[in-house]
Amino acid sequence: MIEQKLEPKRVGKGLYTWVDERLKIATLVEYMSHKVVPKHRGSIWYYFGGATLFFFVVQVVTGILLLLYYRPGADSGYESVKFIISEVSFGWLIRAIHSWSANLMILAAFIHMFSVFFTHAYRNPREMTWVSGVLLLGLGLMFGFSGYLLPWNELSFFATRVGTGMAGALPFVGKFLMTVMRGGDDVTGATIGRFFGLHVAILPGLFAVLLSFHLFFIQRQGMSEPLEWEKGAAGPRKYYPFFPNFLMRELLIWLIMLNILAVLAVVFPDGIGVVHWPLGQKADPFAPPPPVIRPEWYFMFAFQALKFMPAHLLSVEGELIGIGVMSLGGLLWMLVPFLARKNMEGQKPILINAFGWVVVIFIITMTIIGYILK
Amino acid sequence: MNRRISIMRRLRPAVMLAVIMALMPAIGRGDGCLDCHATWEEGAKAPSKLIKFDVHFKAGLGCSDCHGGNPNADDMDVVRKTKGFKGVPKPAEIPQFCASCHSDPVYMVKHNPSLPTDQLEKYKTSVHGMRLFEKGDGKVANCVSCHSVHNIESPLTPTSTVNIQNVPKTCAKCHADTSYMKEYGIPTNQYEEYQKSVHGIALLVNKDNGAPACNSCHGNHGATPPGVTSLGAVCGLCHALVADNFAKSPHKKAFDEAGFPECETCHSNHFVQKPQLNWVGTSDSSLCVRCHAANDGTRGFAVADSIHMALSHLNNAYNRAVGEIDQADQKGMMVTDERFALNDVKQAIIQGANEVHFFDATVVTKTAQDGSAAADKIYNSGQKKISDYYFRRKGLGIATLLITILVIALYFKIRTLEKN
Amino acid sequence: MDNANQDRRGFLNWLIGGGVIAFLGSVLYPVVKYMVPPASGEANVSQVKLPFKLKDLQEDEKHFRIFKFGRTLGIVILTPDNQIRALSAVCTHLDCTVQYRKDLGLIWCACHNGKYDLEGRNISGPPPRPLKQYAVHINKTTGEIIVAEGQG
Ligand code: HEM
Ligand code: FES
Known about the structure:
The complex is a heterotrimer of chains A (374), B (420) and C (152). Chain A has 374 residues and is mainly α. Chain A contains 16 helices and six strands. With 420 residues, chain B is mainly α. Chain B has a domain of 120 residues. At the B-C interface, helix 22 and helix 23 of B face helix 1 of C. The site of protoporphyrin IX containing FE (HEM) has 26 residues of chain A, from helix 3, helix 5, helix 6 and helix 9.
């Protein structure tokens, strides 16, 4: 009898009552226990938001760890990263995980977004979830752009110079924007200061707020159900209880992701192929730029599309038109739930699906071309 | 009609001005020679074509300043008759021709105070000068053979025939010409050998202007081959430490007595090659055995053997260290610090090579031991990096295994959960 | 049957519990190791504290020492007028390591007899460029020498 008192279950229960007495979490648990997730062919897509979330958490943890040794600045950024990967024990691992997870987070976010798009989960009442999601992806891309410069090596220096230079091509605000981004006329130590602040303070703050909204909306509304169900087609509707079934499945997936992440980080600490971040040489503003300056893969489609623009189109600079068209496309994309309303009522959303495919094919072909044409 | 005339009138001053401007350079120098010579002469090598590039011309000297004659006379016959006309000097006259200014310190200081004025004196001591003045041999090099004529440029100008990059070719113009050199009975393969030597490659291929051209060893105006005794000093100009070491070595006396030229005996003169490990030692290919044998009553043979051993050991230690860190590098480990530390070993290798010239095994052995120790340290560090690499793999293996077990357990947990 | 089932579930729970603990261990081990700063302290930035003191340099009969400065070598010299000067030690000719010659009052490269004055200017021999000078700070009380990027 005495041993039984020490059984984990009892201890857990005791703890639960202790907390519940103070915080009244019973109602919350009650609410959660009713939460369900639709079970159907497309259920797999429900996991990608969670995967994105997982990678984001990994980013926060490894990012904080990197901050223990990283020192921003033109004469310390490179040195401190070199120090981390060569002298701090497991420093190479932390950097490798941070870099891999950054890329996988963007990838997961893209998959998540397109799955939401093609299952039309953005439709009423989830418009706000969609909009917050688009903004989250935008912040994710900014994370990538700002983080890339921080090691202050050749690769990052020239890519950032080109990237910020593109902003400089915008009419009226271009020069202003570029100077503000660079903290001067050119990419210098001042730029690192700005990018560093953005990467470790401003973006995480904004991201946390938007993410809370995003998750709050989902908690309030529950997961969307397939379009077919709504139209009264198909047989019986099935659901998973969110707790513990769906959560356990999600945990399972996170563990698998972690495993993949660990293998990638140990086997390819410097990345591989087009996701590659060797430290290499320190940035030297006066050295000739390397023969191929490439943006990171998730910017490649935009970069390549801009390169394809003719120098002038009806006496307007081609690059400008490119930026304009793509900004407009981004805006349209964000407003999809509002534009697609009509399309959704009763009929099959052919037009909207077609739009989605055009975007997917555009992104994929431009990316491939970008890597083939040096 | 009237109108046209008035236009012409108005234009006249402008036309006149243009004509005057066009004539200005010649008029400015009070030199009318080019007025005629430029129209007579043809070909890219005509003096009137080349003269634009000439330092003298650029400094404001005209044709008559060297060749004499009245530059303003209209007729060549008149020019020839003017007092002080020198015309075209014969080869034997050229040194004096140039020296009339270049050996005059009072005159030269006005134009270029840093230029020496002893060229003619030196030239007289050179083989070229002696043959010219004593034997009247017009084939030898005089001033213009090397400096060119009419487009003489400062040696610092890359296009000058006496720029250090061009000196070897300039000398080779005659010295590599077998038929031209036939009557002198000296070799003509110096340029060919030099091009393949460490010095030729450094200067001509790597464009290292610190490397010696012909004149760095032979002198220029006083060109003579360095003699047996002065050879050490010539090489020692750059290889000071080696020359010093050699002077302190037992070979110094021995070579002097035997009449061996110091450096050349082992390294050759124009065909100097990168020294190889087997040069010093007792194998058949070594240079030492040319004089030394096992029981010849000198220490030479034994010393050569010990030096060879010490240097081979250092060399092997270096290669072993490089191999190990290359391997670690290939495995993706950071080895920048190890590569950096290799500098110490390289420095020891250079120092060891310098110290060979003491021909004293203890000195080289000490350096080689220090260098080898440094190399071994790098090797160990590389080895540690490699084992670190395997440690990472092992750690990863364990971690993934643990996570996989957890994944499987969770999977079964979900299955049992969903069965109910 | 029921018993076997219960056994299996017990085993599964045990496995999961153990797995979670092992998992936490394998995540926390590298993280904790990472947080312990390495012996070398912090990343070398653009200055170094020399691994010897002013006194060592003054007592050194050669009046100079070579030190590691980032990815290159530096030379620190006690000049005849008792100043401390630091320069790059990499000969601008073919990268040999230079030394200070007290007898000549010069910085000297043994490889090809290249010579620099104490300001680092190449004054004789093959070197095509001067040696870079560094700034030197000396802590008067401890005798520590700190060398930094930038003109001395
Ligand atoms: C960048 C970081 C992001 C994180 C961490 C994140 C996280 C999540 C999570 C955990 C869920 C619930 C599970 C799921 O449905 O997959 C979710 C749902 C959702 N997300 Fe995201 N998301 C991100 C980006 C985006 C983006 C880029 C979009 C679209 C533009 C988006 C739109 C949505 C929508 C509409 C839902 C609701 C789906 C439904 O109810 O079926 N999210 N998100
Ligand atoms: S390497 Fe220093 S003089 Fe040649």
